[in-house]
Amino acid sequence: MPSDRAARRPSLRAGHRLVLAVASGVALTLAFPTYNLWWLAPVGVALLSAAVLGATWRLALAIGLVGGLVFFLPTLSWSGIYVGALPWVALSVLQALYIALMTALTAAVQRPLLRTRLQPLAYAAVPVFWVLQETARSHTPFGGFPWARLAFSQADSPLAHLAAWVGAPGVTAAVAALGALLHAAVVIALRRVGGVAPRRARAAYVLSAVLVAFTALAVTAGAASTPPTDGKAVPVMFVQGNVPRPGLDFNAERRKVLDNHVEETLRGLAAGGEPPSLVVWPENASDIDPLRNPDAEAEIRAAVEAAGAPVLLGAVLREPWPMVSNASLFYRPGGGEPERYVKQHPVPFAEYIPYRSFFRHFSDKVDLVTADFTAGHDPAAFEVPLRSGGSYWAIPTICFEVAYDDPMREATLQPSRQNSILVVQTNNATFGYTAESEQQFAISRLRAIEHGRSVVHVSTVGVSAVIHPDGSYEDKTRLFTAAAGRADPVVRSSVTVSDRIGDLPEYTAAGLAALLVALSAAASRKRRGRAARVQAEHREEEEAVVV
Length: 547
Description:
By secondary structure, the protein is α/β, with parallel strands linked by helices. The chain has helices at residues 4-8, 14-31, 40-52, 57-75, 85-113, 120-137, 163-194, 202-224, 254-270, 294-307, 356-359, 406-412, 436-451, 497-501, 504-546; strands at residues 232-233, 236-240, 278-280, 311-317, 325-331, 339-342, 382-385, 391-398, 420-426, 455-459, 465-467, 473-474, 483-487, 490-491. The strands form three sheets. It has a six-stranded mixed beta sheet with strand order 6-5-4-3-2-13. Helix 10 (294-307) links the parallel strand 3 and strand 4 (311-317). The radius of gyration is 27 Å and the shape is elongated.
């Protein structure tokens, strides 16, 4: 067990810790699209772990805030591309505060453990609290903002295969665990080389080796397993109609956006090839409510009849007035009322403004949202008939919903609708030529692995593609181009382990966090009791000398 002197000896000055925090933020930024240096994600975690280990919780709070800002400001810069710096900076600061709270709690738990034989558990706190941090910011405030999670940087990594077993939270845990182990390995190596390994540390090293072996085994097993890609291939067309111009006023010419999607659909059909079983248009393909505008409906019906197949499109519905709905409408050939799905997670400050009168004091941009979007309440799936007989189900997800864990899982688990593909309909016109489109596409790739499903990812302006159940993709489009892509995604019905266990990884992290807090508190009480006994003995000795 390390001596008190060794435990108290400051390993890093505050300035050095802040430098490590900055380096951590840079590494994490580079791990995400469009840099795609996914292997830097564990390095970023290791650097932040090194910055926090042994620090007071107050210093760790500042360290986490600095590291979080360096990470989120560039990674989320797309959020201010057309609305100015205030919303972008406010969102980045909010997300960085979660990192700060995580590092403060981690440091508070670690310090007592560093003085015991349970020292390796100080490193175990890193992945545990990282998962909890991401869970917290995925749900709070206003429904949360689950963007830029560690898992979403790993679409090209072997670790992505773990998603089928433990979901996005499990991938995050694996990345953070590798970072913590990298940090621990460097510490042990430096102690060995420097000849300052604490006495009686053999137990700690043995426990570290066990943790390393267990984590390496789990990661290797996940990475070595190839997600299945078998299933019945079905012909699908996706249409990226493009918009007149990027920016917040992308739909200033709403009829032109609708016309673009109709024209690109007809152009794609005229190119020949196997007739599609389904045509998918993106979110906001029709910002003219086709249920209330006969001209818009006539255009859509013309495309449906030309395709001879259902068209799934994104539309804004003027209901329930004075609110509006962001919906996926499923039109079948031959007429009839379209089926619908309403987005369950409207984006705060983009699709609705909470406490509008209050936030107007900070920015008049809140009034750009003239009508708040209402939230849907249930997942949906649309049955797509096949010309050869039989059918399959198309499960829609709209835009940022793809970053939430629940919507796709709940829809995929519907017993009668498991023979399915997933559809992500999005509109990236409001983010211009930024990394947002690629970041969202990477999330869809991880979701394909997580749920063992093909994903048709289609945007108004790009990027769009069909993603296979192993995360690979084909026919990917470029930004701000018109395109009609064709592919044959496979329809699958099996349910992944990740879907079956649901939120278990988060609950497991919460349980482990509670255990670490209890062990840390016990170690702290034991140390305070030992210190009290030593002080009592000193007082007795002093009294004896006086007598």
